[in-house]
Amino acid sequence: MGLRVLAAMSGGVDSAVAAARIAEAGHDVTGVHLALSANPQSHRTGARGCCTVEDSRDARRAADVIGIPFYIWDMAERFQRDVIEDFVAEYAAGRTPNPCLRCNEKIKFAAVLDRALALGFDAVATGHHARLVDGVLSRSPDQGKDQSYVLGVLTREQLGHAIFPLGDSTKAEVREEAARRGLTVADKPDSHDICFIADGDTRGFLTKRLGAAEGPIVDQSGDVVGSHQGAHGFTVGQRKGLHIDRPAADGRPRYVLSIEPVSNTVTVGPRSALEVTSITCGRPLWNGPVGDGPGSSDGAGSGRGAVPADGSGEFTVQLRAHGEVYPCRFEETEGGLRIEIDRPATGVAAGQAAVLYSGATVIGSATIVSAA
Length: 372
What we know:
3 domains; SH3 type barrels; EC 2.8.1.13; 24% helix
């Protein structure tokens, strides 16, 4: 007997093909598009984001072609609170958030899943490029499109009610299938940037909400080398747009090394000063394979499961979406996690997620607090 599945349809090619595959497999599928903006006309057009008026129409047309019921759910208030306000607050605190990760966690697999289960659905299907094997999250075979990193914050319980129908497909295969199925989104460009920042100007978006506040840009010795209109406009590892008055003595580019929101100070220095090998994290979440390892293996994913207590073994960590992967060792601390990587990483920013892997399998995640 088939499942009752709610297919989240963004209006893009991935979610359309995902819904089509689930319906073709014999499940009872209903499509839903999430209206995330109270004023969608203000969001970018031309398929550049994932909250446009065109997207809702594309999703409806895809549902018609597939032959499934279709609804639009208004999630604008929840999206404003859990994603946009969180994004602004994180920057104000000197951290660098990932809004797509937060949207997956708080909207698609919290608010939507909760409502779906309450309505009698068994699972939520999305067009993410990631694999689920017995409820365990793994990488997509298409490394360039793999989205396991932005799903690494989901609990075992949430993953247990998720379906990723594109798990074994490359993006090229998905587009070819969409064309064969007569879905008009087959050639639709992928979304880019941050969907709720219409013009792509993150600094301008934050300044409108946090206000301009002049502060110093200093080098590692504390000498003032420039000024800015708000520390919230910078992120660790940033090179462009610094507007520094004095060049470095060696003539080399400077990068943002740290952001201090209380004193509104941005510290810059050479690229070599960005290199870190030790990362301190908070809020660890274990959502990988359940085995005989220590710790609880409850549905919330709080237990370690099959992972050794000392973090020994062949593990890797990814520190940002589409970023490099580093061999690592880790150990749990009081309420947190310390990760040691085998070669230096640069641009590691507080507020980002550190997602741990065993081979292609996600074993857990944590939020980066600091690095050295």
